[in-house]
Amino acid sequence: MFTRIVKMEFQEKCIPVFLTNFEEVKLKIRNFPGCSHLELYCDKNDKTIYFTYSRWNTTNDLENYRKSDLFRKVWATTKPMFRSKAQAWSVDVLSSN
Length: 97
Hints:
Elements: E1 2-9, H1 15-30, E2 35-42, E3 49-56, H2 59-66, H3 69-78, E4 87-91
Antiparallel strand pairs: 1-3, 1-4, 2-3
Helix pairs in contact: 1-3
């Protein structure tokens, strides 16, 4: 299992549309095969910066999601709202409670 963190910086005027869309698709993403967790965070100091934090069973599960119609629709809606290119990291847990 690993975690995927995606940082997205939005045009301020687009944030309400992004949040509405996220509410509509979050359960579909959470229920995608191989996804065990999904959360959305907002930066405390810059309300235009958001992060998704998701857990995936395998890298193949994430790749299957990234090749899916669901991802294509989500990304096609979300990407035009960015003020800069999204950044993404796939990380392993080294230490936890």
